[in-house]
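Entry 14. Structure prediction run on the chain below.
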Amino acid sequence: MRGWGLLLGSLLAWSALTAACDSDDDPADGASAGAGGGSTSSSHHGGSGGAFECNDAGVDAKDTPPMVSIQKPVEGDVYMQGQIIPLEGTAIDAVDGVLTSEKQVLWFKDMVDPTGEGPVNSYDPAEDGPLPPGPHPITLTAINSRCLEASTTVNIVVE
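Output returned:
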Protein backbone atom coordinates (compact mmCIF):
# COMPACT_ATOMS: atom_id res chain seq x y z
CA MET A 1 0.00 0.00 0.00
CA ARG A 2 2.99 2.31 0.57
CA GLY A 3 3.63 2.40 -3.16
CA TRP A 4 0.17 3.75 -4.02
CA GLY A 5 0.48 6.48 -1.40
CA LEU A 6 3.88 7.48 -2.76
CA LEU A 7 2.58 7.47 -6.32
CA LEU A 8 -0.53 9.48 -5.56
CA GLY A 9 1.36 11.91 -3.32
CA SER A 10 4.09 12.46 -5.91
CA LEU A 11 1.59 12.97 -8.74
CA LEU A 12 -0.41 15.49 -6.74
CA ALA A 13 2.76 17.23 -5.59
CA TRP A 14 4.22 17.48 -9.09
CA SER A 15 0.89 18.71 -10.50
CA ALA A 16 0.74 21.43 -7.84
CA LEU A 17 4.40 22.31 -8.41
CA THR A 18 4.14 22.77 -12.16
CA ALA A 19 0.69 24.38 -12.03
CA ALA A 20 1.86 26.96 -9.52
CA CYS A 21 4.93 27.80 -11.60
CA ASP A 22 2.79 28.06 -14.72
CA SER A 23 0.25 30.24 -12.93
CA ASP A 24 3.01 32.61 -11.79
CA ASP A 25 3.49 33.57 -15.45
CA ASP A 26 -0.14 34.65 -15.92
CA PRO A 27 -0.03 38.38 -16.69
CA ALA A 28 -3.71 38.69 -15.79
CA ASP A 29 -2.99 38.08 -12.12
CA GLY A 30 -0.45 40.93 -11.95
CA ALA A 31 2.01 38.76 -10.05
CA SER A 32 4.61 38.04 -12.72
CA ALA A 33 7.83 40.00 -12.86
CA GLY A 34 6.87 41.37 -16.25
CA ALA A 35 3.50 42.67 -15.05
CA GLY A 36 4.36 45.55 -12.81
CA GLY A 37 7.79 44.42 -11.58
CA GLY A 38 6.42 42.26 -8.76
CA SER A 39 8.42 39.31 -7.51
CA THR A 40 6.86 35.88 -7.46
CA SER A 41 7.89 33.30 -4.95
CA SER A 42 6.02 30.07 -4.71
CA SER A 43 6.01 27.30 -2.16
CA HIS A 44 5.35 23.97 -3.84
CA HIS A 45 4.99 20.50 -2.49
CA GLY A 46 7.48 18.37 -4.33
CA GLY A 47 7.78 14.73 -3.45
CA SER A 48 7.34 13.41 0.06
CA GLY A 49 9.93 15.73 1.62
CA GLY A 50 7.70 18.79 2.08
CA ALA A 51 7.57 22.19 0.41
CA PHE A 52 9.88 23.37 -2.36
CA GLU A 53 10.46 27.05 -3.06
CA CYS A 54 10.98 28.35 -6.57
CA ASN A 55 11.05 31.97 -7.65
CA ASP A 56 10.66 32.97 -11.28
CA ALA A 57 11.19 36.72 -10.68
CA GLY A 58 14.80 36.65 -11.88
CA VAL A 59 14.18 34.53 -14.99
CA ASP A 60 15.11 36.15 -18.29
CA ALA A 61 15.48 34.97 -21.88
CA LYS A 62 19.08 33.87 -21.24
CA ASP A 63 18.14 31.60 -18.32
CA THR A 64 17.99 27.88 -19.02
CA PRO A 65 16.29 24.89 -17.44
CA PRO A 66 18.41 22.17 -15.84
CA MET A 67 20.25 19.63 -17.98
CA VAL A 68 18.78 16.20 -17.24
CA SER A 69 20.23 12.78 -18.12
CA ILE A 70 19.41 9.17 -17.29
CA GLN A 71 22.21 6.69 -16.60
CA LYS A 72 19.93 3.77 -15.62
CA PRO A 73 17.92 2.29 -17.16
CA VAL A 74 19.47 2.50 -20.62
CA GLU A 75 17.38 2.93 -23.77
CA GLY A 76 16.09 -0.50 -24.86
CA ASP A 77 16.87 -2.33 -21.60
CA VAL A 78 14.73 -5.45 -21.12
CA TYR A 79 13.40 -6.44 -17.68
CA MET A 80 11.40 -9.43 -16.56
CA GLN A 81 7.98 -8.69 -15.10
CA GLY A 82 8.42 -8.23 -11.34
CA GLN A 83 12.10 -7.28 -11.60
CA ILE A 84 13.30 -4.17 -9.73
CA ILE A 85 14.32 -1.44 -12.18
CA PRO A 86 17.17 0.85 -11.08
CA LEU A 87 16.60 4.57 -11.62
CA GLU A 88 19.75 6.68 -11.74
CA GLY A 89 20.03 10.10 -13.30
CA THR A 90 21.50 13.56 -12.96
CA ALA A 91 20.04 17.04 -13.07
CA ILE A 92 22.52 19.91 -13.33
CA ASP A 93 21.54 23.56 -13.38
CA ALA A 94 23.74 26.49 -14.43
CA VAL A 95 22.72 28.50 -11.35
CA ASP A 96 21.69 25.89 -8.76
CA GLY A 97 24.39 23.31 -9.55
CA VAL A 98 23.63 19.61 -9.10
CA LEU A 99 19.97 19.08 -8.13
CA THR A 100 19.64 16.33 -5.54
CA SER A 101 16.43 17.24 -3.73
CA GLU A 102 13.55 14.77 -3.85
CA LYS A 103 11.41 17.89 -4.18
CA GLN A 104 13.08 18.90 -7.46
CA VAL A 105 13.93 15.59 -9.16
CA LEU A 106 11.13 13.13 -9.95
CA TRP A 107 10.78 9.91 -11.95
CA PHE A 108 7.72 8.89 -13.97
CA LYS A 109 6.72 5.68 -15.74
CA ASP A 110 4.50 5.67 -18.81
CA MET A 111 4.83 9.48 -18.98
CA VAL A 112 2.37 10.28 -16.17
CA ASP A 113 2.66 7.85 -13.27
CA PRO A 114 5.07 9.05 -10.54
CA THR A 115 7.62 6.37 -9.84
CA GLY A 116 10.32 7.79 -7.58
CA GLU A 117 11.97 10.86 -6.13
CA GLY A 118 15.56 12.06 -6.18
CA PRO A 119 18.35 11.31 -8.64
CA VAL A 120 18.78 7.69 -7.45
CA ASN A 121 15.78 5.45 -6.80
CA SER A 122 14.25 2.24 -8.10
CA TYR A 123 10.96 0.96 -9.42
CA ASP A 124 10.00 -1.92 -7.15
CA PRO A 125 7.00 -3.87 -8.46
CA ALA A 126 6.36 -5.27 -4.95
CA GLU A 127 5.72 -1.74 -3.70
CA ASP A 128 4.65 0.11 -6.86
CA GLY A 129 2.72 -2.63 -8.66
CA PRO A 130 4.03 -4.72 -11.55
CA LEU A 131 4.55 -3.20 -14.97
CA PRO A 132 2.62 -5.15 -17.59
CA PRO A 133 4.59 -6.72 -20.44
CA GLY A 134 5.44 -4.34 -23.26
CA PRO A 135 7.25 -1.05 -23.83
CA HIS A 136 7.36 1.57 -21.07
CA PRO A 137 8.83 5.09 -21.17
CA ILE A 138 10.76 6.09 -18.03
CA THR A 139 11.06 9.87 -17.57
CA LEU A 140 13.29 11.94 -15.28
CA THR A 141 12.02 15.48 -14.67
CA ALA A 142 13.78 18.25 -12.75
CA ILE A 143 12.80 21.79 -11.78
CA ASN A 144 15.23 24.50 -10.70
CA SER A 145 14.84 27.31 -8.17
CA ARG A 146 13.53 29.59 -10.92
CA CYS A 147 10.65 27.25 -11.82
CA LEU A 148 12.23 26.10 -15.11
CA GLU A 149 11.88 22.39 -15.77
CA ALA A 150 13.36 19.82 -18.09
CA SER A 151 12.76 16.13 -18.76
CA THR A 152 14.37 13.26 -20.58
CA THR A 153 12.98 9.81 -21.35
CA VAL A 154 14.30 6.35 -22.11
CA ASN A 155 12.20 3.42 -23.26
CA ILE A 156 12.40 -0.01 -21.64
CA VAL A 157 10.66 -3.29 -22.34
CA VAL A 158 9.06 -5.59 -19.76
CA GLU A 159 8.74 -9.25 -20.72
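The longest strand covers residues 134-143.
Filed with the rest of this week's runs.
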